[in-house]
Amino acid sequence: MTGVTAPVTTAREGEPPGEGLVLDVRGLRMRYGSTDVLNGVDFVARPGEVVALLGPNGAGKTTTIEILEGFRMRSAGDVSVLGVDPAHGDENWRARVGVVLQSWRDHGKWRVRELLAHLGMYYGPYSTDKITRPWDADELIDAVGLTEHAQKKIKQLSGGQRRRLDVAIGIVGRPELLFLDEPTAGFDPEARREFHELVHRLSDEASTTIMLTTHDLDEAEKLADRILILAGGKIIADGSADELSRRMSTEAEIKWTRDGQRFVHSTTESTRYVHELFKQHGDAIGDLEVHRASLEDTYMALVREAESGQGDAVLREFAEITEVGTEAGA
Amino acid sequence: MNHTANAVRAGLARGWIELKQTATNGQDIFGNLLTPVILLIVMLSMRGDTLAGFPLSQAVFALPGVIGMNIMISGLMDIAGRLAVEREDGTLLRAKALPSGMVGYMVGKVVTVSGSALVVAAAIIVPGAFLFDGLRLDAGAWLGLLGILVLGLLATMPLGAIAGSFLTNPRAVGALMLPIAGLAAISGIFAPITLFPEWLQWIGQVFPMYWLGLGVRSALLPDAAVAIEIGESWRQLETVAVLGVWAVIGLVVAPVVLRRMARRESGAAVAQRRHKAMQRIT
């Protein structure tokens, strides 16, 4: 087990612990009764980064996020969130963190604007030179696209509208760090796109650090600077979507047509194969497509390996990937 | 502490908003007024009855007692019920995610529940004043009623908060009604406690309800009515002492229990309770 985590830690040894990091998680463990849900989780997030946490159901994504939010005590490990241990975060720290949980049903009798203005009240004393808290209720309602529903009772909102309100509540205090647990569940494609724009705006304009969980790999690819895959109680991959699929030694699929016939071939040596193809057939080749493994393929391969008992060899392999990825990112 | 003061202000605003919501929601209005209406009907049926040694009808004896009983029901059941429901629907977790959010939440609850208790008391006393003769309704009476209302809520709301922290299922709150009904029977609410055997009188006098009834009677009944009470006295000092002791016990224990409950709140806990609730429905 130590052989697996060691390379990851080594890769970070160069930097001083916690310095300039919004999230710094080392050796995080969570045990319920006799089962270990988290088994030594390590990762970091830098200011302004958008990090997506992926993983199969029950992998411990929500548990991880709830520990970072300070809602849950951990069994072991060092955790620093905005430089503070979330288990002992004070109100000042609380004001800098935004939280959007998986499901809310609260405040059904309240009206949208009324609730946002009310919850904003709590953040008033926590303004700083750089950040004016809270976010103005009307501006915020506009930012999440709920203007025409501002006077509606919350229980009358549709699922997607309700979720947008949840996001609005999560950012009403202009957090420096925002946690989003499956933020787009129940969104139609348009709402999803608007939400993605909002996340980009938060990260670009307000340099909010964002950590989100999702089951939508496409979404992770679009939003995240970095993707973490949690499986078997550990982070088994850490890198950009591109890095993950490139370094994964899965095969690429090559499609082409020749003399009106379609061909498909899978190979790990796609460049060489295409070269050979043209050498052999020259101009007769048409409609050439080369698909590298998608994030989904990579994800499925990683998770399957981690879940099947023989995960250790694979894990070592990915520890190396992670190492290279971290160096490239630094 | 400026930040806490801000959260208290937010809590007051919260209580006021929730009270307005109650006042404009048909279901809540019905729920709040049902009990007073039933109790008024019960009292109407006692209008012709008399009690030995009591100068007025039994209805006039019962009316202040019923107000006292309802102060306890509000303080205990209303808080416990709201805590259990709002733990299940995530309101409490939302408060936990705010800076000083729990302070604001609890202040809000105190305002909402006190306001509802006041409405219920008014819904009994205003029609009662027209229906029954003999109530003392001068300035001193109102002041005394207000005093006992504040003291009663102080004595019972922390107990309600403790009960609400232990109940994991909002539908179990109804079960609290059983001991409360039992308590009402031995606390001399509808008939004087002096009619009961002495050992039962002692048990009744341990709990806040007897003293709440006595306190409201001392405020709303003419002096001649004291003859039917224990020791032919309103025992105002003892009332303040017993309710004060309950308040102190509650205010010491409740924060500990509430903090423990709040610490355990998490999204997963809310989701789990919701899952259970869905299973019960299907």
From TrEMBL, chain A:
<dbReference type="InterPro" id="IPR050763">
    <property type="entry name" value="ABC_transporter_ATP-binding"/>
</dbReference>
<dbReference type="GO" id="GO:0016887">
    <property type="term" value="F:ATP hydrolysis activity"/>
</dbReference>
<keyword id="KW-0046">Antibiotic resistance</keyword>
<keyword id="KW-0813">Transport</keyword>
<dbReference type="GO" id="GO:0005524">
    <property type="term" value="F:ATP binding"/>
</dbReference>
<dbReference type="GO" id="GO:0046677">
    <property type="term" value="P:response to antibiotic"/>
</dbReference>
<keyword id="KW-0067">ATP-binding</keyword>
<feature type="domain" description="ABC transporter">
    <location>
        <begin position="23"/>
        <end position="257"/>
    </location>
</feature>
<dbReference type="InterPro" id="IPR017871">
    <property type="entry name" value="ABC_transporter-like_CS"/>
</dbReference>
<dbReference type="Pfam" id="PF00005">
    <property type="entry name" value="ABC_tran"/>
</dbReference>
<keyword id="KW-0547">Nucleotide-binding</keyword>
<dbReference type="InterPro" id="IPR003439">
    <property type="entry name" value="ABC_transporter-like_ATP-bd"/>
</dbReference>
<protein>
    <submittedName>
        <fullName>ABC-2 type transport system ATP-binding protein</fullName>
    </submittedName>
</protein>
<dbReference type="InterPro" id="IPR027417">
    <property type="entry name" value="P-loop_NTPase"/>
</dbReference>
<dbReference type="InterPro" id="IPR003593">
    <property type="entry name" value="AAA+_ATPase"/>
</dbReference>
<dbReference type="GO" id="GO:0005886">
    <property type="term" value="C:plasma membrane"/>
</dbReference>
TrEMBL record, chain B:
<feature type="transmembrane region" description="Helical">
    <location>
        <begin position="29"/>
        <end position="47"/>
    </location>
</feature>
<feature type="domain" description="ABC transmembrane type-2">
    <location>
        <begin position="27"/>
        <end position="261"/>
    </location>
</feature>
<dbReference type="InterPro" id="IPR047817">
    <property type="entry name" value="ABC2_TM_bact-type"/>
</dbReference>
<dbReference type="GO" id="GO:0043190">
    <property type="term" value="C:ATP-binding cassette (ABC) transporter complex"/>
</dbReference>
<keyword id="KW-1133">Transmembrane helix</keyword>
<keyword id="KW-0812">Transmembrane</keyword>
<protein>
    <submittedName>
        <fullName>ABC-2 type transport system permease protein</fullName>
    </submittedName>
</protein>
<dbReference type="InterPro" id="IPR051784">
    <property type="entry name" value="Nod_factor_ABC_transporter"/>
</dbReference>
<feature type="transmembrane region" description="Helical">
    <location>
        <begin position="142"/>
        <end position="167"/>
    </location>
</feature>
<feature type="transmembrane region" description="Helical">
    <location>
        <begin position="59"/>
        <end position="85"/>
    </location>
</feature>
<feature type="transmembrane region" description="Helical">
    <location>
        <begin position="105"/>
        <end position="130"/>
    </location>
</feature>
<feature type="transmembrane region" description="Helical">
    <location>
        <begin position="240"/>
        <end position="258"/>
    </location>
</feature>
<dbReference type="InterPro" id="IPR000412">
    <property type="entry name" value="ABC_2_transport"/>
</dbReference>
<dbReference type="InterPro" id="IPR013525">
    <property type="entry name" value="ABC2_TM"/>
</dbReference>
<keyword id="KW-0046">Antibiotic resistance</keyword>
<dbReference type="Pfam" id="PF12698">
    <property type="entry name" value="ABC2_membrane_3"/>
</dbReference>
<keyword id="KW-0472">Membrane</keyword>
<dbReference type="GO" id="GO:0140359">
    <property type="term" value="F:ABC-type transporter activity"/>
</dbReference>
<feature type="transmembrane region" description="Helical">
    <location>
        <begin position="173"/>
        <end position="196"/>
    </location>
</feature>
<dbReference type="GO" id="GO:0046677">
    <property type="term" value="P:response to antibiotic"/>
</dbReference>
